[in-house]
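Appendix B, record 7
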Amino acid sequence: MSGLGPLNLSDADTRGFEAIDAGRYPAVIQEIKMDAVKNADGTGKMPAGTPMIKVQFKITDEELKEAKGYEPRVFAQYIIPPKDYDKAKAAKIKGMLVNFLTAVGEDEAAVKSNKYEPDLEDFVGRECVVVVAKEPKKNRDGSVIEDEYNNPVKGVKPAGTLTGSTGAGLL
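Structure tokens (predicted):
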């Protein structure tokens, strides 16, 4: 290892992160950034280089944080389809982005205008409710990995739309 010296990893926590139960959870935007679809092998639905917005949400449910021993985080990405993409599919993909933007406080009319230019840094810290699923992880060949799960974000709702103290099971 180039110049690091000996590493003392004897106290490393190797438990990893467990998936949370499906449900609605209060959250804040922890990180948001522009990226692009990789699609290196050409098998994906979008061409390489297609722009997307990646969002990391921090779950703010204190009971869940205490139960897990860490602040769970979930992730979403919103594709900005190419102009030559199928119009009906592009409209649905754009609709998901509009729903996210309005759920975190942006004006729908402004978002849908041809002049909307979001300042992504302004979104960090905004509160919302994330709708989280719990789905089995899969290998590249599509086979299910036993006892391992992902937590995809299925939707984002405005802050304050959560009922009850915990979101578990409220899909």
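Remarks on this record: The beta strands are 23-36, 51-59, 73-79, 127-132, 135-138, 144-150, 153-158. Confidence is low (pLDDT under 50) at residues 164-171.
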